[in-house]
Design brief:
Elements lengths: L2 E8 L4 E7 L6 E8 L5 H5 L7 E5 L3 E2 L19 E4 L1 E2 L12 H7 L4 E3 L3 H11 L2 E7 L16 H4 L5 E4 L3 E7 L4 H8 L3 E7 L11 E4 L10 H12 L4 E4 L1 H9 L3 E18 L4 E14 L7 E7 L5 E6 L4 E4 L14 H11 L1
Parallel strand pairs: 3-4, 4-6, 5-7, 6-8, 11-12, 11-13, 13-14, 14-19
Antiparallel strand pairs: 1-2, 1-9, 3-9, 10-12, 15-16, 15-17, 17-18, 18-19
Helix pairs in contact: 6-7
Length: 351
C-alpha cells in the first residue's frame, strides 16, 4: 500500500503526524477515543457503539491476524469514523482470515493514520478527556470541528424493522440501540423467543415476558422515546436486563442521572467488583457515560463497581427483577467471566 504524509489534528490544537493511503483524500472528523485491547480490532471496528468516533488503538501492532468472516463481526459494517495505529501489519497470519486489515479499511473507505505516536495521543486524551479531532492531509487550512455531543447516534444504528430469533415459550423483547451481534448469539442460547425491535418501537401494548436493552453509541439523554417505553415496562414489573447504554437508559427511566466520563472505558481487562459477593471480574467495556449513583432512587442499589475509578458498573432493584451492567458480559472481544448474567436474566423470566 502506497502511503503519504498525514496528520491527526485535535480541537485543542495538538497535531500528531503519520501516514495515510495515497488514495485517502479530504478531512475526516470524529470524537477521538482510545482502546487498550491487545486483540479484537475486527469486533471493535464493527461495534455500533463506536459510531461517530475516531478510534486510537494503543497496542503497537494492529492487523497481524487479518480480518475474519462477517459471521464473527458485531454488525455488518465498520462504524468508526477513522482508525489510528502505531504500526499496521504488512502481512497477516490466521487460518480464519479472509483478507488483510488494510484491504478491509480501503474497501470500506475508512480513513486511517499509520505510524502515529499512539502513546502520546492516549496520554493527551487521559489528561484532557475525549477530544474532537480530524484525520487530514498536511496543510495549513483551518479546521471547523463539529459538536458531536448533540447528535442522536442511536437513531442512525438501530434496526428499522422488528426481527425474530429462537424458539421457546417465553418471549423477550430486545431493544436495539446499536446492539452487538454477540448479544443476540448469547440470548439465542437460552430457550426463549427474541423479538429484536428498533429503539423507538413501543411494544408495551403487545404480549411479552421480559425486556433486554442493548448497548449503543452517544449520549443516553437523546433516547427520550426509549426512556419513555422503559418507564412503562418497569411500571408493569416485567423482568428487565440492560447492558452498557442499556444501564444508562434504565437509570434515566427511574429518574437517576448520567454523566460523561473523562476518557471513557474501552478495554478488555477492566476489573469490576460485584458488591454482593466481593468477587472481582475482568470485563470487556466500551462506553463514554456512567450512572451518577447519588441520584439513584432509594429502592435501587449499585451492584458492580469499577475498581480503577470506582464508577458504577451495574445497578439493581432491591426486590423487583430489574438489573443492568455497564460492561459487556457477551465479550467479543474480551473475557467470558460474566456470561452467567444471561442465565440470571433467564432465571428471572422463569420465576
Amino acid at each position: 500500500m502506497q502511503l503519504k504524509p498525514a496528520q491527526l489534528i485535535l480541537e485543542t490544537g495538538e497535531v500528531f503526524y503519520g501516514q495515510s493511503p495515497v488514495k485517502q483524500n479530504g478531512e475526516y472528523f470524529g470524537e477521538v477515543v482510545f482502546n487498550t485491547g491487545m486483540t479484537g480490532y475486527v469486533e471493535s471496528l464493527t461495534d455500533p457503539s463506536y459510531t461517530g468516533q475516531i478510534l486510537v488503538f494503543t497496542y503497537p501492532l494492529i492487523g497481524n491476524y487479518g480480518v475474519t468472516i462477517p459471521s464473527t463481526w458485531e454488525s455488518n459494517q465498520i462504524h468508526v469514523k477513522g482508525v489510528i495505529m502505531s504500526e499496521l501489519a504488512a502481512h497477516y497470519s490466521s487460518h480464519s482470515a479472509q483478507k488483510s486489515l488494510t484491504e478491509w479499511l480501503v474497501e470500506n473507505d475508512i480513513p486511517c493514520l499509520i505510524g502515529a505516536d499512539t502513546r502520546a495521543i492516549t496520554k493527551r486524551l487521559r489528561t484532557h478527556g475525549v477530544i474532537p479531532g480530524a484525520i487530514a492531509p498536511i496543510d495549513d487550512k483551518p479546521k471547523t470541528f463539529e459538536d458531536f455531543s448533540g447528535i442522536d447516534w442511536v437513531s442512525k444504528v438501530s434496526i428499522k424493522e422488528p426481527k425474530m430469533y429462537g424458539s421457546g415459550k417465553k418471549l423477550v423483547i430486545a431493544v436495539d440501540c446499536g446492539m452487538k451481534e454477540n448479544i443476540i448469539r448469547c440470548l439465542s442460547q437460552l430457550p426463549i423467543r427474541i423479538k429484536r425491535v428498533p429503539y423507538n418501537y413501543d411494544f408495551t401494548h403487545e404480549a411479552f415476558d421480559a425486556v433486554f436493552v442493548s448497548n449503543g453509541p452517544g449520549d443516553p439523554v437523546h433516547c427520550k422515546e426509549t426512556i419513555a417505553i422503559l418507564k412503562k415496562v418497569m411500571a408493569a414489573k416485567k423482568p428487565t436486563f440492560g447492558i452498557c447504554l442499556g444501564t444508562q437508559l434504565m437509570a434515566l427511566a427511574i429518574g437517576a442521572k448520567t454523566y460523561k466520563l473523562p476518557f471513557g472505558h474501552r478495554a478488555h481487562n477492566q476489573p469490576c467488583l460485584e458488591l454482593s459477593s466481593g468477587r472481582c471480574f475482568l470485563t470487556s467495556q466500551n462506553h463514554s457515560y456512567a450512572v451518577d449513583e447519588t441520584t439513584l432512587p432509594s429502592d435501587w442499589r449499585v451492584s458492580f463497581r469499577n475498581l480503577n475509578d470506582q464508577s458504577v458498573e451495574g445497578i439493581e432493584h432491591e426486590s423487583l427483577p430489574f438489573f443492568s451492567v455497564q460492561f459487556h458480559p457477551e465479550a467479543a472481544p474480551g473475557p467470558l467471566d460474566t456470561q452467567w448474567l444471561f442465565q440470571k436474566f433467564y432465571d428471572s423470566i422463569k420465576e
